[in-house]
Design goal:
Layout lengths: L28 H11 L7 E4 L6 H8 L4 E6 L2 H14 L5 E5 L2 H7 L5 E6 L7 H11 L4 E11 L13 E8 L2 E7 L1
Parallel strand pairs: 1-2, 1-4, 2-3, 4-5
Antiparallel strand pairs: 5-7, 6-7
């Protein structure tokens, strides 16, 4: 499997640099395509949060398909450098905000932006997806009224998460990847 690419939109075909190893959670082109087929044209003009940015594959795909803004949060130095390279290569600096920060602190501190989509795909097997979801439940103002939270996990990580403000409305499995969808 080569480097991931942008599947559709104005950056279609662009290859992305990735970080070797398990620091980031890569998404296959198949899963990414399925995700954006589910979102459909609603991505146009959307404000997108890629909470654990990694290589930026998902947030850059959102921008390529017409999202107005993608906010990337990445704490790891190496992943941050690769993500910055990918954003520069895509030429979308004006629509991409990259922040080197802890995702959990960011969620607690963000006051100016509200997101249409919040994508959560943290490093695998640390339970961070549940922690991020619970924190978002407490910071529900970060998601617009009809927005979605989307979680990408390995099936072995799947378990119910008790939430007050959001409910799971869809759950799709693609081989060794599950996409979970939450709304108000």
């Amino acid at each position: 499997m080569g480097n991931p690419r942008i599947i559709s939109g104005k950056m279609r075909g662009m290859r992305l640099k990735t970080l070797p190893g398990t620091i980031t959670r890569p998404i296959t082109d198949r899963v990414k395509e399925a995700l954006f087929n589910i979102i459909g044209t609603d991505i146009q003009g959307a404000i997108f949060l890629d909470l654990f940015g990694g290589s930026g594959s998902v947030g850059l795909e959102a921008l390529s398909r017409g999202a107005e803004l993608a906010q990337f949060i990445e704490l790891n130095n190496k992943a941050y450098a690769i993500l910055k390279e990918n954003i520069d290569k895509a030429g979308c600096e004006g629509n991409a905000r990259l922040l080197k920060a802890d995702a959990f602190k960011y969620l607690h501190q963000e006051k100016e932006l509200q997101f249409d989509y919040i994508f959560i795909a943290p490093p695998q097997y640390h339970g961070m997806w549940k922690d991020a979801l619970v924190q978002l439940d407490q910071e529900a103002h970060l998601l617009v009224e009809d927005g979605w939270i989307i979680v990408q996990i390995d099936p072995v990580e799947d378990e119910p998460v008790p939430l007050e403000n959001f409910k799971e409305f869809d759950n799709r499995r693609y081989g060794s990847t599950i996409l979970k969808f939450y709304s108000r």
